[in-house]
């Protein structure tokens, strides 16, 4: 846990006035600065950003549709199991009534 505290300190220092030895060292370097807008614009001109956005949207869309289809199939199988149990109980009750009626007829004869 102590190894990662400087990372959180750096992030915290980016958005507040917090300063420590590590944050002062890392934030002095341009590598740890925010990305300039010109870089994002250049990446957009090369179609890197739009392609990454399109791929990301497609992946998330696939995950959502897949989760929906899986939940629907699970619901269908659960409902089918419940309905089969109800239908079987009804059939068993009807069969028992028929057997009882047949026994009663034999007893009468």
From TrEMBL:
Membrane topology: Multi-pass membrane protein
Pfam families (alphabetical): Dpy19
Primary localization: membrane
Homology family: Belongs to the dpy-19 family.
Cellular component GO terms held in the UniProt record: nuclear inner membrane
Residue ranges of the TM segments: 47-64
Compartment(s): Membrane
Residues annotated as signal peptide: none
One example GO MF annotation: mannosyltransferase activity
PANTHER family noted in UniProt: C-MANNOSYLTRANSFERASE DPY19L1, DPY-19-LIKE 1, LIKE (H. SAPIENS)
Record keywords: Glycosyltransferase, Membrane, Transferase, Transmembrane, Transmembrane helix
Protein name stated in the entry: Protein dumpy-19
